[in-house]
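Supplementary Methods, section 5.1.

A reviewer requested that the exact input to the structure prediction be made available. We therefore reproduce it here, unchanged from the version used in the analyses.
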Amino acid sequence: MSELLAPAGNFEALVAAISNGADAIYLGMNQFGARAYSANFDKESFIEAITYAHLRNVKIYVTLNTIIFEDELQPVYEMIDFLNENHVDGIIIQDLAVFDYIVKKYPNIEAHCSTQMGIDDVEGTLLFKKLGAKRVVLSREVEIEEAKKIKKIAKIPLEIFIHGALCVSYSGNCLMSGLIGYRSGNRGRCVGSCRKLYTLVDETTNQSFSPSYLLSMKDLNTLSNIHELKEMDSLKIEGRMKEPSYVANVVSAYRKALDGKSTTEDFLNLSKTFHRTFTKGYIFHEDKKDITNISRPNNFGVPIGKIVNKNHIGYKIELTSPLFQNDIIRIEHNNEDINLTVVKLYDEHKNYISSASQYCYIQVKEDLSNGDIVYKTKDYQFYQDLSKTYPKEYKRFKIDFIVSAFAGTPLTIHATCGEYQISYEANTLLDSAKTQPTSREAVLEQLNRLKESVYALGTLEYYADSVYIPAKLLNEARRFIVSKLNEVRLERQYQVLPLPSLKPISYPYTEPVLAVYATTEEQYEAAKECGISIIYSKENTIRRNAVTYPKKEGMVLVGGYGGVASYASKNETISDFSLNVVNSKAVYLLHSLGVNRATLSYELNKNQIQSLIAGYEKENGGLPNLEMIVYGHTHLLFTKYCPLKKMNLCGTCKKHFYSLKDDYGTFPILSHEDCTTTLLNGKILNLIDELDSIKNISVFRLQFTIESKEETKAIIQQFQEKLKNKQKTKLFNSATDTRGHFNKEIL
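The structure derived from this sequence is encoded token-by-token as follows.
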């Protein structure tokens, strides 16, 4: 049966998940995890957590799934050492440096490729299987048929998301939070830019649409399709930022579904904890038009009635579902929310009541209107019921006892629990009974006192003569056996291998040259006319979400690991920014896989770039071969979703140009032929004045997207002049340009 994998942002959530039937838990430490704003675990609480879980045969996976900067390599390695010493079952990884350290040093730790790595095809999966991965977490955009195909061909355990919040962007390819707010999603500090209000603007006609939450995804819910997921090895619930009650509710629903015990009530109960309304997700072919909820980005609640009148008592609610005292409701009035806890409910005689099922009155200071919809966002009694589901033992492990008790000999007990056996022998001799001998029932009663443990009484074989066994002695024996069983069941063997010596890979210093990425034919022509020799276009670019890898001649720019696997041994291969390269070890590993040149992440600043290069030189005795984007409208996010289709504008992108706007800026929309979408930064990354301070970069790339041919030529010529004369310039325009992260470190 598939593993049910649950989130735990703190210890209480971990207990809630295990108490409701989770097979495994994923959690983050207080560093290097992709949910920096959850409580997470320090070393002490991690040891407590893994002890609690392992006693219950539940696995623990730790998320070390952020990008790792050069000065963090040693600290993250030390964290992995600690996790290994304390018997972690697996580590979920984004960065190649972390992946390589685990698979080469700790064969007992399962290396799980995070969805942040962007693996969504057979080729990428097979690559990481070859490199030592024990599991691949597929991208949320992968459809079920493709997931089954990957499983069949790659023959490696696969993990998929089944419930919870969805990122609008392909995971790992959202730079919006980092570039706008300097809090990077790739560092676990996403500020939820996709949950903000945006106005869609048709720049061609200057038409503006009403502000809405155009990028806010619904929550994934696959409970109705759970039977189609039986071939997947691990089913993952999102929610390390969620409260323990949420975890208990969702885990319970999916546990019952996996065990074939679902009821209609379980489906309904999923709406009683936090949700943004539900989607079956791309995995089950949700239409792009229906995958977002643009009306609100937070807890939707359950509609329970509407305002129908107002009198001297208050506002009258006509109910379709019961309302109880202490429930929390929201009332939708003129596109605004009024949220309140129901402290007092009244009937038509202004009597206090604790609940109502048809009509009731409430008093609020805000103005409401007839027809305003009332939603229940927190069902007080349901939450009370959820809190009673933990802590408890979801399953207990039976102990079979064989008790031997004869006068003049010590009490001996042999206990068997699964594969484990424990023997106890008292250090005193038993006496004959003076009156009533100790009965089997009396022994059974004492040994059955296992409520405070994870065990239950199995069978009891009792061999005795007319003997008296003090209850105190039986209790001592039981405690000894439980303690020893805990001890042996928590034992783990682990192996530490010496890290192999590196075979140095280095490249000679060359004067930097310009490369151009041309989105349009006109930009391509401009680059050719300016004498640019390195030009990327749709003809030699394989994006992150490629579904096929056709044969190519010459140079290829690849955006995903499937592309690395498919071209690195055959073509001159350049890895794109979407691989999130931020440390020297990741560069080395890409070079070792056959990547000729690695493009650095947008999320590096100038000091981090130089630290990366210095670290590479120290280990390899020479330089890496690096490319850096120094001009362009930065790709804020890349998504399978299309906001134009959501607004019934499908196909208009061929003739009209659109953007999103908020209070802080404008974000051009770049629509692709395959109906994926890139959201661009309205401000232009422009490092022309900084080029002379950037050392040991082989290629400076100009990334053109929405520029005209004339603009493209002018910009190329500016950069050519800069590289030729190497003189200080002041061409940066603060009104239109940005230096991105170059002078400022992201969090």
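The first helix runs from residue 11 to 19. These observations are discussed further in the main text.
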